[in-house]
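WARN retry 2 of 3 for item q-0093 after timeout on previous attempt; input resubmitted unchanged.
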Amino acid sequence: MAHSQERPRRAVVIGGGIGGLTAAAALHSGGWRVTVLERASSLAPVGAAISLAPNALRALDVIGVGDRIRDLAAWQGDGGLRAPSGRWLSRSDADAAAARFGGPLVLLHRATLIDTLAALLPTDAVRTGTPGALADPGDMGPSGRPARVTTPDGDLEADLVVAADGIHSAVRRALFPGHPGPVYSGFTTWRVVIPVPGARFASHETWGRGRIWGTHPLKDGRVYAYAAAMTPAGGHAPDDEKAELLRLFGDWHHPVPAVLAAARPEDVLRHDVHHLARPLPAHHRGRVALLGDAAHAMPPTLGQGGNQAVEDAIVLAHHGDDLAAYTAARLPRTTSISRQAVRIARLNMARGRAVTAVRDGVLAVASKAAPGLVLRGFDGIADWRPPQAPYAAVEAGTPGHAGRGRAVKESP
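OK item q-0093 returned
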C-alpha cells in the first residue's frame, strides 16, 4: 500500500489493554495516525496489580514514561519464597535485583499503568464500546492492499493492524485457523487489591502443595495478594471465592489470615489460567501483527505476560511495517520465556508430598549456598534492552549498564 510523505501511516489497534495502548503510544510517537478499538465501555482494566520488571521499564523509557512508573516502586528490602508455615526457603533483595538487572521491580495497579499510557494518546484516538473485527489482513506485497477492520461505525482501512485482543483472540483464529489455541494450564488464580490495616510484612510468595500465595505491598498503601491452586477448569466456589480462599489458605502464615480477614467476597477475582502450548508459526500475517496474549499467552509464574506485551509493542513500533522483522525479533524470545514459565509452573504447583519436600529442601540449601540463585533465573529476561533510543547506543554483545532513561557503555 503506497503512502506519501504527506499522509501519515495509519494503524488500527484492536484491544485497549496494556499491550495495545503501549503499541498505540509508541506508534503515535513515531508519526503514525492511530485508532484504538476497545470493546468494553471504558479502559478500566479487569484485573488487579501488575509487576513490571526492568525489561519492561526500559521499554517504557522509549515512550517517555519509564521513570514515572519507576517512582511507584514499592518493593523495598528483603523478600523471597516461603513455606506455608512461614519458613523462608529463599531470600531476595531489591537492591541486588536492581544491581543485577539495571533497575527495580515495580508493582502497581493495572489501572495506574492504563491511565499513564492512555494519556500519551490524542483524546480522539481511543474508541471505547467499539469492537473491531478483522475483515481483510491486507497484503504487504506488490499489490499493497490495505488491511480492513470492521466496526459498528463502518470499516477502517489501515497500513498496520495491531491485534492485542487477548488470549482468546479472534484475530489469531482468523489468521491461523489451524492453530489449536489456548489450553488450560491446570490451575486457577485468585487476586485481590485491598487495604490491610496494620499489616507489616516482607514481600513474598509462598509455595505449598499444589497451591501458591503471594502478598506484596503497593506504594499507595494497599496490599496486592494472589493465590493459585490446581483444580479442574471452570470451577467455582459453592458459596463465594473468599470462603474458598479461607478453606485453602486460612491456616497459612502471617499476613495471609490478615489479608483474608480484610477482604470482602466481592474483592476477590477468580480466573482459570490458559496458555498457548504450541507457538504460532509467526506473529504476523499480511499487514496484521499479533501482540501480547494474542501472540504468546503464558502462565503467570514468571510474572512476564504483561512485560512481554510491552516489549512486543516497542519492538513492533521500531520495525514499523516490516512485520517479518517483528516476528524474527519476538517469536524465539517469547517462545523461550513461555516454555520457562510452564516449567516453573510444574515446579511451584507440584502436589506430591515427597516432591514438594525435596523441592523446598533444595531451594533452602541452594539459596544459602548461592544467594543469587533465584535472580539468575531471570538472566536473559529482565536484562533485555529495546532496539531503539535511549538504549540502542549499547552495541550488540557489549555489556551495558542501564541508567534511568539512558544506556551507558561500560569501560573495558
